[in-house]
Amino acid sequence: MIKQSLGLDKRSRSSYLLRAVNVLSVKDKLKRDCASLLRRIFAVPSPMRELSSHFISVYMCEGILYHGTLVNRIVNFGMSPVACIFNKYQVPPKSVCGVVDSLKVLLMNEHFIKPYSEEHILVSLLTQSF
Fold it and tell me: Where are the domains of the chain?
């Protein structure tokens, strides 16, 4: 939908384009949502908080993870459950890429909306599949 709204071919590469318009990947979105859920669970006293604290203590003391739990998912993402409880999760910045920076500048240009402008042609060439 993003490519179509920008007037690009459906076969254009989207990885750089999505990074240029700051669209999170599905994995980053899941990480952020799981960390946020655990943080909100521990913000209010509830049975879910007690159960989650049990799973965290079993993981920390014995190294056992129960399949299908939120704690298991957070550990599999490579995050610390304790850090998720006390700190708001921030998506780590991606490495600097010249193509992404170029796409950002071209997409923000006022002439990009014209289909045959230099900016639009350059964006289509930068996202072209080889």
Answer: 2-24+94-126, 26-86
